[in-house]
Amino acid sequence: MTADQEKKQAALEAVKYIKNNMVVGLGTGSTAKHMIEAVGQMVAEGMNLTCVPSSDATEKLAKELGIKIVELHEVDHIDVTIDGADEFDGDFQLIKGGGGALLREKILAWNTKFNIIIADSSKDVKKLGAFKLPVEVIPFATKQIKTYLEAEGLKPVQRMKEGNEYRTDENNNILDIDIFEVEDLQELEIKLLKIPGVVETGLFLDSTSLIIVGKEGGPEVKERS
Ligand SMILES: O=C(CO)[C@H](O)[C@H](O)COP(=O)(O)O
């Protein structure tokens, strides 16, 4: 199976957790795209769903598919959010934000009763950190934060796009940092969030209830114990 086939398989398994009249959080990325297309199909077949998107790109796609989109403040909870990940480990810890949508994704996850992560098998790792951790920062402070993180040995690289500095949907920058040598991720998360100008990190340490991985022979559903 190709990675994309695994992504689609995981997405199609995940949408089985969506029931009529639910409020659904829609993730961002190539795996989430398969899920959004499946949700569009369910809506076209008559299911009543209210969805909260995690990025401008997801909102655009969902609207094109006829999915009812609302802003977060218009709902009092989200029943289920389905999103991708850049890496996950055996403790249901994730690195997210490769697609730059980590801030809204983390807000959705925090406001969601049941978070499902969908992934191809390459995202399953023993230890997080081969993928660089995205840290969203306010442009006013990007240079100073980068200098500080360099001194901490975290090798920050400012994300670029087509020769220009990358901007998130919230108009912030991203510093991608190397956390492979870091032992205590909780401690790292606290340390990063204490820096003025750091808005959010792509570490999702305890929000995930279920991980669905696309695999030859059928999807693997991992439940948090
Ligand atoms: O966190 C994300 C976007 O901010 C994505 O979920 C993550 O980057 C995985 O993307 P893909 O499904 O394309 O591999």
TrEMBL record:
Pathway: Carbohydrate degradation; pentose phosphate pathway; D-ribose 5-phosphate from D-ribulose 5-phosphate (non-oxidative stage): step 1/1. Its EC number is 5.3.1.6. The active site is at 105 (proton acceptor). It is an enzyme of class 5 (isomerase). It comes from the Bacteria. Gene3D superfamilies: 3.30.70.260, 3.40.50.1360. Pfam families: Rib_5-P_isom_A. It catalyses: aldehydo-D-ribose 5-phosphate = D-ribulose 5-phosphate. InterPro entries: NagB/RpiA_transferase-like, Ribose5P_isomerase_typA_subgr, Ribose5P_isomerase_type_A. One of its GO terms (molecular function) is ribose-5-phosphate isomerase activity. PANTHER family: RIBOSE-5-PHOSPHATE ISOMERASE (PTHR11934:SF0). Homodimer. Catalyzes the reversible conversion of ribose-5-phosphate to ribulose 5-phosphate. Belongs to the ribose 5-phosphate isomerase family. This is Ribose-5-phosphate isomerase A. It comes from Leeuwenhoekiella parthenopeia. The lineage of its organism: Bacteria, Pseudomonadati, Bacteroidota, Flavobacteriia, Flavobacteriales.
